[in-house]
Specification:
The complex is a heterodimer. Chain A is of the alpha+beta class. Helices cover about 25% and strands about 25% of the residues of chain A. Chain A is built from 13 helices and 24 strands. In chain A, strands 13, 14, 15, 16, 19, 20, 21 and 22 form an eight-stranded mixed sheet that branches. In chain A, strands 3-12-11-10 form a four-stranded mixed sheet, with no helix packed on it. Chain A is globular. Chain B is mostly helical. Chain B is about 70% helix and about 0% strand. Chain B has 13 helices and no strands. Chain B is flat, with a radius of gyration of 25 Å. The mean pLDDT of chain B is about 85. The chains are: A alpha+beta, B mainly alpha. Chains A and B meet through strand 10, strand 12, helix 4 and helix 10 of A and helix 2, helix 3, helix 5 and helix 12 of B.
Chain lengths: ~625, ~350
């Protein structure tokens, strides 16, 4: 009897401790219920000396200390937890259907949602830290010059047709990309890969043409079963496996895909991490958010990732739903055109020299005007009113979640209309004719008398950005700007944006990943109208050099790269090519009937084989 | 007759080519760029983007792209560009997004669209014809006035608006009020284990709401047309003769008047069906009906040119063949019409 009682109290303490741990360890909000079914409880008071593991908040330190506690515990009379229930289906909702279930050919996120459950990758993101960790490989070694990565493929993983997963599949998939036979933008993943060598069946070597510290994320692509395709890659584009991937190695297998309606997956009993408890997974397409929210409420669907903040309260009122919030790897911003929108030009000539014909923007090329706009925009109000507080402010281009590169020393630029007005006066913009709009009186680039008139664009249909646009238009209007706000159809918007023919744009980056490399958006070689994404024409040779150095630093140690990125952020912060608004918080809602879910901010399906339906 | 059909078919060739040239120019010159859309990611370098564009053959002049689309690109001898046969040899190309044959994609969805438009046409005729006939028989009466107002309303209400109102009321609000609600979209209820419900009632409750929305326009058109035709026919001499023979009112109205009044219906059959296909594009999108309409809408947003062009070709062929069929049918039913 005594021993049973003791066991029970220890067990209960364990539960309490784990709750404390859960509370300290992760700043993530909702507690996931771990259920021990069939328990009859009775409350007893006990004194116990136990060892408790405490995680000191904010540090990775783990301390063990002995404490004496008086605890009121719920005694578990039947302590044996029943087995995890097997079977059942879970349904996730999406607005868009998948396009193609081949990880090398797909570029959209619904397709990735599905093929990531079917195909393993060499590396995946740690769901909680975002660091890249081995998946289908045991690990890798980097040569001293930093150019050669040697991967050892995990032993004991099999395709669903019984063939073993080997280095052949790994090498085949990336050689296929390199071959030029696949028409897919993923060819950029192998742009810096010079050779892919199959050393032996389980060892693959990647040789890069230059040191690239951002190379590993490029290998985060699912492998194809090499034995199902012609060795010269010629049949990949035509293959039926692109729509019916029958040979897979992930936790689930493909069962059915009715276009624009649903995709059904069933468990893979031979999954190398262990067969999933659930019988299957359904990906259901609904026409819009209203229908998705409603089906979540009625229990017709179980999971909805990326629900809009305006539905948050409605969701919180539902007792059968869990809510998990996490910071997205992206941010929303307002970009300022610093080249001549009348005559967009590449910043560099083909030989790398600076293009003399690259013009300036008559108003926005003056840093003081850009800073004034940031001062005049109430960014906190935007976060609290437009996205209902579901976002964190940001001052420069690196996300706070990338701790080693994030510069936390940058002071937030305050909402200060007077300061903004003073900056505009200083820059030579004053309203002397009293019409409410400032004109140029001794400004840097515009002709004398030019009104302070700018166009503002965003993509129509994105309610958040349209609301921000209206607020900005209003707040800048009070300061003496004349803002013409035009939400544009997505295609027209993208053409205008990348064509560099706009003044100010409101847009956002998403899925930026775990590396802070930002050459794509701020390096001068990417100031290329119609073709690349430094569409604000930001130009600072120092930043070019820093970005290049940080990306190609031998050894790629984060301690060395971090300070360089912090310097980049200082430059960006000072120049204000963007007004940084916020890092949005994504909201994942799921039914409490799904057990075993433990969502991380980088990934929530990673342990889908451990989920079960209660 | 045969000569007439052959002549019409020959005339259709320049019409068809003209349509394809015009739509090709319009589609390709609309703002937007499928390459940029698929590579909207700063980490993809400019050169990779240009290589991708070249693989798709989208870096070539518009005339070359049109010829490629029409007759294929074998004549170019560029190994890096994906081979195409051209629509004249039955190759509608591949979707830029799904990388699959456009015909295959359409084949998957054509059934759903035909079911929806077929049901809508049937409802349109089955309701429109009797409404028109009764309105004509009771000309000036209450039903006649009612049917005229109904026709105006049905013609004026945009299908997308009606769909949204119906979904909001009967699917969303009714469910909140715990009344029997209709499904808000789809073709069938998906069971918890991912099986399609095979129950006929379930299929009908999914099919009827969008079909009825689509049928509003044909009901209006058919009932107006029938009313006018019946009124016209009733004044004809042979009707008076029939009455003079002492036939019953029923026999006069239905055997003599209706049969002749039905003839013009054949002429609007073609345009009705193409009109329904147009309406289906929006209706399918709103009701998440997995048919061709949704395919073309999403292809439009993604600037998936081969799919958009296939949509136009189907539409063009539909209009040309539909009109031809109507004319031939007309001559076939009504011996007074001579096709020369």
């Amino acid at each position: 009897m005594l021993s049973t009682k003791k066991w029970a109290s220890l067990f209960a303490l364990l539960v309490v401790t784990s709750l404390i741990l859960a509370a300290c360890a992760t700043p993530t909000p909702e507690v996931v219920e771990k259920v021990v079914t069939q328990v009859v409880k009775e409350t007893v008071v006990q004194k116990e000396t136990v060892k408790e593991t405490v995680i000191v908040e904010g540090t990775p330190q783990v301390v063990e200390k002995e404490i004496t506690k008086v605890v009121e515990v719920e005694k578990v009379v039947t302590p044996t937890p029943t087995a995890i229930p097997e079977g059942g289906f879970v349904t996730e909702v999406s607005f868009a259907d998948a396009k193609i279930l081949n990880p090398l050919l797909s570029t959209d996120s619904p397709s990735a949602d599905i093929h990531e459950l079917l195909f393993g990758k060499a590396v995946v993101k740690d769901p909680f830290t975002g660091a890249l960790i081995p998946d289908l490989v045991e690990g890798w070694e980097v040569s001293e010059d930093g150019l050669t990565y040697t991967f050892t493929v995990r032993d004991g993983v099999y395709w669903s047709d019984g063939t073993q997963v080997t280095g052949k599949d790994f090498a085949f998939s990336f050689q296929a990309l390199k071959s030029g036979q696949l028409d897919t933008p993923r060819i950029s993943n192998v742009e810096y890969v010079e050779e892919i060598n199959l050393i032996d069946d389980m060892t693959v070597e990647f040789v890069f043409s230059e040191v690239n510290c951002a190379a590993l994320p490029d290998l985060e692509l699912g492998w194809l079963p090499a034995h199902m395709y012609a060795p010269d890659f010629s049949d990949i584009m035509e293959s039926d496996l692109n729509t019916e991937p029958t040979v897979v190695n992930g936790p689930f297998q493909f069962k059915e895909w009715v276009k624009d309606d649903h995709i059904t997956l069933v468990r893979n009993p031979d999954y190398w991490r262990g067969a999933p408890h659930m019988e299957g997974f359904i990906y259901k397409i609904v026409p819009n958010a209203t229908v998705g929210v409603q089906q979540l409420k009625t229990g017709e669907v179980d999971i909805y990732d990326g629900i809009e903040p305006k539905y948050l309260v409605e969701m919180e009122l539902q007792e059968h739903l869990n809510i998990f919030k996490y910071f997205d790897d992206g941010y929303t911003f307002m970009g300022f055109q610093m080249g001549d929108p009348e005559d967009p030009q590449p910043r560099l000539n083909e030989d790398g020299s600076v293009n003399e014909n690259h013009g300036v923007h008559p108003i926005l090329s003056d840093q003081r005007v850009r800073l004034a706009i940031t001062h005049a925009t109430d960014r906190n109000a935007i976060i609290s009113k437009v996205i209902f507080g579901q976002g964190a402010p940001l001052e420069a281009d690196v996300l706070p979640t990338i701790k080693w590169a994030f510069n936390d020393a940058l002071e937030p630029i305050e909402y200060d209309v007077e300061k903004a007005a003073a900056l505009l006066e200083e820059a030579g913009w004053a309203d002397q004719d009293g019409d409410g709009v400032r004109e140029c009186h001794g400004c840097m680039y515009a002709e004398e008398g030019t009104p302070l008139k700018l166009g503002l664009i965003t993509n129509a249909g994105n309610e958040t950005r349209e609301s921000i646009g209206l607020i900005v238009q209003d707040q800048l209007g009070e300061l003496g700007f004349e803002i013409e706000f035009e939400p544009m159809e997505w295609n027209a918007f993208v053409t205008t944006l990348v064509g560099q023919t706009f003044d100010i744009c409101i847009v956002g980056w998403t899925s930026m990943g775990v590396d802070p490399d930002d050459e794509g958006t701020f390096a001068s070689q990417n100031d290329l109208p119609d073709a690349a994404f430094n569409f604000v024409s930001y130009y600072n040779p120092e930043v070019d050099a820093l970005l290049k150095q940080a990306k190609t630093l031998p050894g790629c140690r984060v301690e060395d790269r971090g300070p360089l990125y912090k310097q980049v952020q200082e430059h960006i912060y000072a120049a204000q090519p963007y007004t940084f608004f916020y890092v949005p918080r994504a909201i994942l809602v799921y039914n409490k009937r799904i057990g075993g879910m433990n969502p991380g901010s980088w990934e929530f399906r990673y342990n889908i084989h451990e989920w079960y339906v209660q | 007759m045969t000569r007439y059909v052959i002549r019409r078919l020959l005339q259709a060739i320049p019409t068809f080519l003209g349509i394809t040239i015009l739509t090709f120019i319009i589609v390709y010159s609309a703002p937007g760029d499928p390459v940029l859309q698929q590579t909207f990611d700063p980490r993809i370098s400019g050169s990779a983007r240009e290589e991708f564009r070249h693989q798709l053959g989208m870096d070539q002049p518009l005339t070359v792209q049109y010829l490629t689309w029409l007759i294929g690109n074998g004549w170019q001898n560029d190994p890096e560009v994906l081979p195409r046969q051209g629509i004249l040899r039955g190759d509608f190309g591949k979707s830029l997004i799904e990388k699959r044959s456009v015909l295959e994609m359409i084949g998957e969805r054509v059934g759903a669209t035909l079911l929806l438009t077929g049901t809508a046409t049937l409802i349109g005729y089955l309701l429109g014809v009797p409404i028109g006939v009764f309105a004509a028989v009771q000309r000036g009466g209450a039903f006649d006035n009612f049917s005229r107002v109904l026709a105006v309303i049905f013609n004026a209400i945009p299908g997308f608006w009606l769909s949204l109102v119906i979904i909001l009321l009967f699917a969303v609000k009714f469910r909140e009020w715990n009344l029997p609600a209709i499904p808000s979209g789809g073709m069938y209820t998906l069971t918890a284990s991912g099986e399609r419900t095979l129950d006929l009632g379930d299929r009908l409750i999914h099919l009827l709401p969008p079909a009825l929305v689509l049928a509003t326009a044909p009901i209006a058109t058919t009932s107006r047309l029938m009313r006018t035709q019946v009124l016209e026919v009733i004044r004809q001499d042979y009707i008076r003769t029939a009455r003079a023979k002492g036939l019953t009112e029923r026999a006069v109205n239905f055997t003599h008047a209706l049969r002749n009044a039905l003839i013009p219906l054949a002429t609007i059959l073609g345009p009705t069906i193409t009109g329904l296909l147009n309406g289906a594009i929006i209706t399918e999108t709103i009701w998440s009906w997995p048919g061709m309409g949704r395919l073309f809408i999403s292809a439009n947003f993604q600037r998936d040119y081969p799919v958009i062009m296939a949509g136009f070709v189907i539409g063009a062929v539909g209009v040309i063949v539909g009109n031809l069929l109507s004319d031939v049918l007309y001559g076939f039913i009504d011996p007074r019409v001579r096709l020369e």
